[in-house]
Amino acid sequence: MLSWNSIPFSCGHVGVWYRRGMSHTADTGGPIRLKTKVHHPYRGRTVLEFLCERFKYHPRETWLERLASGSIRLNGRVASPDTVVEADDTVEYEIDIVEPEVDFGYDIVHEDADLIAVSKSGNIPVHASGNYITHTLIARVREDLGEKVHLCHRLDRETSGVVLLARNVEARREMGRAFEDGRVGKSYIAVARGEPADDSFECTRALRKIGKQHPIPRTVIDDRVGKPARTTFRVLERFDGFSVIKASPETGRTNQVRVHLEVSGCPIVGDKTYGLPARLLRKMVADAGDPEVRAHLILPRHALHHARMRFAHPTTGAPTEIGAPLPGDMRAFLEERRGRV
């Protein structure tokens, strides 16, 4: 059987590796002033309508209160609820929030005139969502580089590994088409519970997203109305009731690798959404710090790493391969478990 240690994790044709960003940075809270551009589909709406449709994390009443207080500006001037917005207008507003602690550290693993690829930690969202506003990978990379790079795809907050960013609109557009057409090869390394019967297997179960009306939004198996999905797997190592598995998704559904491993009987270690029995999942919803839940998870984040990408360069067409080695937390877990065998 092939060991994961023998897999080459090169940086592609550009051998650039260096560390950027600060690690484990917490925020003391306080107001954050945000700016957003009005895109074409929202032109002709009132400021109130724009805010309610674009930023649904606040109810209409909250936006009305903020407009009444004068804290929302349109093109630098205090806005009223019935002011009409036009395309490319700038809306500014303040939020008072304590953002969760994240690990801002990342490695730049590829860089050229059109693309930058970084290997992110297992504790940072790639873009703003929920209580994460400025504590995101895209915000930190833009700040560090001083340029407006664009995300070409997404990774879950707890998934470490390669994230591809475009340095111009043309590269972002071409990479977006490549992802949509399935022309980007992706390989993940997961540490999972259990040992599959076969060294190579696949999962083709259809997937459907469950919305925020549920306690834990998630993706579920639904072969009747779900979207087609296919992932191939190869076991790289087995030990002590765990397996190191290479996962290659051929479609790009939300949480696809995690769900397909769960339904295959090998949930990922540390996965709070797909790695807990129903009883413990209910306990976690009530108390995320429950000792029994934490003991079952073993790791504070799910052990999934985006290890490699393969695609044609958006400008030159040259075959491009970008990789990132396993992060320290996954390596430490594997070494500790091997020591028990």
Structure in words:
- With 341 residues, the protein is of the alpha+beta class.
- It folds into 2 domains: 261 residues, Pseudouridine synthase; 66 residues, RNA-binding S4 domain (Structural Genomics Hypothetical 15.5 Kd Protein In mrcA-pckA Intergenic Region, Chain A), CATH 3.10.290.10.
- It has 8 helices and 17 strands.
- Strands 1, 6, 7, 8, 9, 10, 11, 14, 15, 16 and 17 form an 11-stranded mixed beta sheet that branches.
- It is globular.
Q: What value does the Rg take, in angstroms?
A: 22 Å
Order of helices and strands: EEHHEEEEEHEEHEEEEEEHHHEEH
CATH superfamily of the largest domain, by name, is: Pseudouridine synthase
CA distance, first residue to last residue? 17 Å
Could you give a short description of this structure?
The chain has 341 residues and is an alpha+beta fold. The protein has 8 helices and 17 strands.
Topology:
Blueprint: E1 18-20, E2 31-37, H1 47-54, H2 60-69, E3 73-74, E4 77-78, E5 90-96, E6 106-111, E7 115-120, H3 137-145, E8 150-151, E9 160-166, H4 169-180, E10 185-193, E11 200-203, E12 207-210, E13 218-221, E14 231-239, E15 242-249, H5 256-263, H6 278-286, H7 291-297, E16 304-312, E17 319-323, H8 328-338
Parallel strand pairs: 9-16
Antiparallel strand pairs: 1-6, 2-5, 3-4, 3-5, 6-7, 7-9, 8-9, 10-15, 10-16, 11-14, 12-13, 14-15, 16-17
